[in-house]
From TrEMBL:
GO terms for biological process: DNA repair; DNA replication. Its cofactor is Mg(2+); Mn(2+). NAD(+) binds at residues 37-41, 86-87, 117, 140, 177, 292, 316. The gene is ligA. It comes from Echinicola soli. Residues 6-60 form a coiled coil. DNA ligase that catalyzes the formation of phosphodiester linkages between 5'-phosphoryl and 3'-hydroxyl groups in double-stranded DNA using NAD as a coenzyme and as the energy source for the reaction. It is essential for DNA replication and repair of damaged DNA. This is DNA ligase. It holds the Pfam family DNA_ligase_aden. GO terms for molecular function: DNA binding; DNA ligase (NAD+) activity; metal ion binding. The active site is at residue 119. SUPFAM superfamilies: BRCT domain, DNA ligase/mRNA capping enzyme, catalytic domain, Nucleic acid-binding proteins, RuvA domain 2-like. The keyword NAD applies. The lineage of its organism: Bacteria, Pseudomonadati, Bacteroidota, Cytophagia, Cytophagales.
Amino acid sequence: MSTISKLEAQKRIAELTATLNHHNQLYYQEDRSEISDFEFDKLLEELIQLEAQFPALQDKNSPTQHVGGAITKEFETVEHETRMLSLGNTYSKEELLAFDERVAKGLGHRGYSYFCELKFDGVAISLVYENGELVRAVTRGDGYRGDNVTANVKTIKNIPLYLQGDDIPDKFEIRGEIFLPIKEFEKINAAREANGEALLANPRNTASGTLKMQDSSIVAKRRLNCYFYQLLGDEIDVDQHDEAMHLLEKWGFNISPTYKNCTDINAVFEYIESWREKRHTLSLDTDGVVLKVNDYAQREELGFTAKIPRWAIAYKYKAESAESELMSVTYQVGRTGAITPVANLSPVLLAGTTVKRASLHNANEIKRLDLHNGDVVFVEKGGEIIPKITAVAVEKRKADAKPVSYITHCPECGTALERKEGEAKHFCPNSASCPPQVLGRIEHFVHKRAMNIDSMGTERIRALINQGYVEHPADLYELNHKKDQLLGLEINAEQYEKSSDGYLYVALRKALFAVTDGISLSAIYQYLEETETLEQHLKLKQFTDFIHHQNKKVSLNLAAVDKLKNLLGQLAHDQIEDFLPVSAVMAMFVGNQLSLEALHQLSLQKNTVHDIVLAFDFELHRDQEDKIKKLKGNTFQEGVISNMLSGIAASKEQPFEKVLFALGIRNIGENTAQLLARHFKTIENLGQASTEQLLDINGVGETLVNSIREFFDQEENQANIQRLKAHGLHFEIKSEDLPEVKGNALEGLKVLASGKFEHFKRDEIIEAISAHGGTYLKSVSKNLDLIIEGADMGPSKKEKAEKLGIKMISENEFLSMIAD
Ligand SMILES: NC(=O)c1ccc[n+]([C@@H]2O[C@H](COP(=O)([O-])OP(=O)(O)OC[C@H]3O[C@@H](n4cnc5c(N)ncnc54)[C@H](O)[C@@H]3O)[C@@H](O)[C@H]2O)c1
Ligand SMILES: [Zn+2]
């Protein structure tokens, strides 16, 4: 152990504590991580060592003394009957041997065995069964108390709600790990990608986030799964862990088939090795192996520390790592305006795939790594989809290397970037017209589940945005007046560049293709690939040899290239490798009607050849048209345009709930849009709803209320809605889109149902209420007219309802009420 003064230790302990608390907060509360588990565990280990060296400096609130999670305000808090602990962990076999020695010593060297299984990477859960029925599901929380997430857990298909069998104890607790299978995770991300939503980082965080959702119907769609690994209770009649596991299997609980009893630590090592690679074939993420002393009496003898049992430990597999060189850092602008720096790396093989890029997350990450241009870095592929840089080989850094400096302006639209208090990511505030943000909005708007305008793929939308035809969804409905301009509009933008002073350039290969005659684009492409000179005029000089070699219309083509060189000579212009000023090339074709200088000025305002041609006030001859066509990129054709326009026209028939979803108001997904459309019936009602009215709706929380407010407060959004309305989109619900009406017994009444019901599941009773004309409200307030009281209605709710004098009826009374 290094020598360190008490003062230094004190400082480092404070630092580590703050850092670990920060990462715990992110990990458990926000379901994301800025550092890998390995890095986290290293920091925690450092703190453990320091506290061992200076016991006086250990704070009782130290992260070494507490289970990392926490309880939230969103769910009822429930006390655990037996504390839920964490596990000690190690990445080294030496430490595993040391653990084994401590166990042997603790047990006075009597015989013992280890029960081994994989360490599932998910979220810990505790279930309580009473009389064979699942009554409670609670998260680990701070270890003492957790969140009551029963409703969500009940949606998990292979968690039994009722148990059958004659050996089931009246009451017991069972613990396990809820996880999201990798396939399901990939499906969710594929859908999000298609929707232009941000991708989720990994299955663990997604599982954890899902479990904490307020709307169980969304949880049900996520297809979570669970493996169980612990049984607790006074009436359990077994004294070995493996016997308990067999009982659980017999009662119908999902147990991972990976477990094995190991008679000594060497057998454990074998088990670890046998799963090192094979674990990647399992349906879920695993990050190590857990070994537990099998005998319950021996467990009791060994006992616990404040945070972990002394009879179990996790061996974690270290993620594979490789060395690579940082070529550059580029910045992506997401569809929400968030900026993500990306490290471009020299290609390197890692865990079976070639890695060329790594996410850098945000500016803090670049600072944390102290990244310099050209650094040799270590890349690791952990739980994340894209690999990440874990460290820099500082000793290999060149003396004159400059630190990577973060951009200050949006690479897409040039707007100065902003960073909100407490947020790690920079973002581009120009949501109205920053191209990727507009693209995100329009893609969402036309999506199958929104306005359902197919024939509008990403590339086509991008072309319409880049060339100034579309900025707001309402612009789509005005495209039919611009049909003539759309014909011939260019789709792919990669053949253009803008010089730093704003002039439009076109790819050299397209220029040479357009000015010559009889030479194919692919031949020109090949010529350019093979010429080694970088300088433009040398390339053009050599091109004359190429023309001779091609032996097609030689004198005509030589004259053309001469003329092009001449025109370029008349123009003071920047050099861009493999691009030419579009004005010089166009002057080849229309130089008689428009001067080179006029063309050059025109190219300052325009983004494509098509744009420039639209600005001409003269007719083109047939052969001029042909030449210009060769210069353009892929273009919109008649068929595509009419397809698009008819899709846009047809979308006007989409019902209000789809239109509402299409508007892209933050936090309004498909289900919420439907809920709000049905409740408020018109956009005006929704826009004018009070916070109280909104919060009363089952499924509406504060975040959503804030997003609704924010949206309607912006005049621009209001104006946009008016424009869409003028185009005939539906902003009120039609009666045929409302759910089936079965009666009017509850007409005008605001109703709440609380507790458990015999004839209805939770969503069924809500449906029954609205089918009979009632409105469901989710909390007890003076706005309520009626409460249907089920079994076990919460005592505090009941008390409040009685105080407010709200009428309460039983399930049977409710049934007869709606039967009339
Ligand atoms: N990257 C970050 O920023 C960050 C932040 C906080 C925590 N973490 C990670 O989380 C760890 C701490 O989490 P923790 O306290 O939940 O500990 P842990 O995940 O290392 O171990 C305890 C948990 O393992 C789970 N588990 C999975 N399979 C099991 C099995 N077969 N048998 C028994 N238990 C099993 C249980 O849920 C149990 O609660 C850290 O060591 C770190 O790796 C990372
Ligand atoms: Zn921008």
